[in-house]
Amino acid sequence: MRKMLPAPFSPRRLVRGVRPGLNMLLLSSVLVGSGLAPLRAQTVDDDQDFASQQLNLPKDLTVFGKSDPNVRKATAIVNGRIITGTDVDQRLALIITANGGKVSDDEKERLRVQVLRNLIDETLQIQEAAANDIKIAPEEVNQSYERVAGNFRQSPGQFDAYLRERGSAPASIKRQIEGELAWSRLLRRNIQPFVNVSEEEVKSVVDRLNAAKGSDEFRIGEIYLSSTPENRPQIIANARNIIEQIQKGGSFPAYARQFSEASTAAVGGDLGWIRPAQLPAELAQAATEMQVGQIAGPIETVGGVSILYVMDKRKVLTADPRDSLLSLKQLSVLFPQGTTKEQASAKAAAFATAIKEIKGCGQANEIGAKIGADVVDNDNVKVRDLPPQLQDILLNLQVGESTPPFGSITDGVRVLVVCGRDDPASANAPDAEQIQAQLEEERVNKRARIYLRDLRRDAVIEYN
């Protein structure tokens, strides 16, 4: 099992095992742009030779029949509980929706196999919880479902229709909500009480953080796929397919929830804020060579392969200027429908000339009215929440200065005027309770993976 130090910088909620969380999948809207080209895979011939010797396999073997363990019909019976083709189709429809509906036929078939595996795990978790007298009341499920619908600014009834239009169903989400609640409650009862973290361990983490002050730390997303010497080439091929889909606009968190076998799958593969030293050597090297927004992989590690995504970067325990809060005025001018590129450029140039007259925010409204621009006040805007192109510009502006004009023919042209800036306070190490919670979370997750692995091993599963 791969070991990784916890990331005590940004406490996250308890990860509920390795099964993806659909309610989180539906809330995912982060699209990953094109990143690094996939790294070249290392040779696995030596591993294959070792495995062949270990299993005493013949060098020239013949496969009798057409059995392919990677191709199964999308139905199964798990300890007597039937998973139908409709169950798989409805869950698959949600994944396709999360990826903007742009999924090839080949990718759909691969996703279908993964969805079936997820449904099997979900069924095992619900069954194990029931065996421990843990049952989730329908009222609890409905309350969670209402919150999911609310995140889409819809009533439960409207959300029902939304799901059906996309080939899914409310029952599919409610079943996954039930699975998450049941598994979480089971872990809190059977695992969490037996996980202990000492004061010495907490102090050790604090000491390491203070020693690393000023060094780089990254917010990393990871998709981890386990492999054996026998199936590693196929797993590497699967990883490359995932990278390709993400680079075409697929959601990294959505793919992490459906494919990653790490404990962070339920939070979209988010490892939190970590330093390279906390990662395995192969991943640490890749992370330090990447820029924010880039994706790399497949990276071979012990027991599998990983896909990395750098979400953000900062200095350990150091105030980051991008955490500054700005007060801004936005002046914008829309282009009439049918405006040509040449007409838009001319109007943008006139807009830019007028903006040069602004000497501080006090004149912004007056100039805006003169040129027919809409003026909107925006307070408490964090620099890091703005597009990367604007972050560097705004960090170098003084109060009263404005950005160059930006926009498009569709959205019009606009500028931002800096009216105020609150610099971030000096960063301090997280308190002992936060660190202890992170260490406990990591240990609970490790035991949860073992727990689910044992459930799979003991299950009676029939494929139709």
Automatic annotation (TrEMBL):
Name the record gives this protein: Parvulin-like PPIase
Lineage summary: Bacteria, Pseudomonadati, Pseudomonadota, Alphaproteobacteria, Sphingomonadales
Gene Ontology MF term list: peptidyl-prolyl cis-trans isomerase activity
Pfam families (alphabetical): Rotamase, SurA_N
Highest taxon in the source lineage: Bacteria
InterPro entries membership: OMP_Chaperone_SurA, PPIase_dom_sf, PPIase_PpiC, SurA_N, Trigger_fact/SurA_dom_sf
Record keyword Chaperone present: yes
Record keywords, A-Z: Chaperone, Isomerase, Periplasm, Rotamase, Signal
Species whose genome carries this gene: Sphingobium amiense
Keyword Transferase included in the entry's annotation: no
Domain PpiC: from-to ranges: 215-312
